[in-house]
Amino acid sequence: MEFIAVILSLVLFVIAALHLYWALGGLWPGIDKASLTRTVIGATNMSTMPPAWLTVAVSACIFAASLFPLMWENLMPDLLPKVILLLGMWVLSLVFIGRGIAGYQPFFRKSNSEEPFASLNRKYFSPLCLLLGGGFISLVLFSGTRT
């Protein structure tokens, strides 16, 4: 289960770093701000990226989420009481699974229909969220480390 924890943490750390890169003005995978917005947000009512402070806040939340699997598997010191750690693991499971499922729902697809986001979401973003949520659930249910 340590392998799953490390993979979850690495994936989330990379995603957090990518959000920080965007907050600092990075444009990849777009070529300008408009193409970046269409690629990573895809909202039909948005033509620019969210403010930098909000993207930094999202990055910080994702980075914090990346620490939960490491604490769960005792790969780093616990920074939280055990009950908060357990609750956090379940909340993260639900958040990622919920986001993964939402990406396939008509209401989400209608409001986030800009290309290339819409296609990327179906192929990569939503499946990744489902895998992340499944990883968190597998740690909670099957890890012998915590009881």
Task: Describe this protein's structure.
The chain is an all-alpha fold and about 150 residues long. The chain has one domain. Helices cover about 70% and strands about 0% of the residues. The chain is built from 6 helices and no strands. It has helices at about 1-25, 35-40, 50-70, 80-100, 105-110, 115-140. Helix 1 (about 1-25) packs antiparallel against helix 3, helix 3 packs across helix 4 (about 80-100) and helix 4 (about 80-100) runs antiparallel to helix 6 (about 115-140). The two termini are about 15 Å apart. The model has no long low-confidence stretch (mean pLDDT about 90).
- Whole-number average pLDDT? 92
Shape estimate: globular
By secondary-structure content and strand pairing, the structural class works out as mainly alpha
- Spans where pLDDT lies below 50 across 5 or more residues: none
End-to-end separation in angstroms reads: 14 Å
User: How many structural domains in the coordinates?
Assistant: 1
Number of strands: 0
Query: What fraction, in percent, of the residue positions are helical?
Result: over 70%
Q: For this entry, what is the oligomeric state of its chains?
A: single chain
The whole-angstrom Rg is 16 Å
Series of H and E elements: HHHHHH
Query: DSSP helix count?
Result: 6
- How would a textbook summarize the main sheet? none
Strand content: under 5%
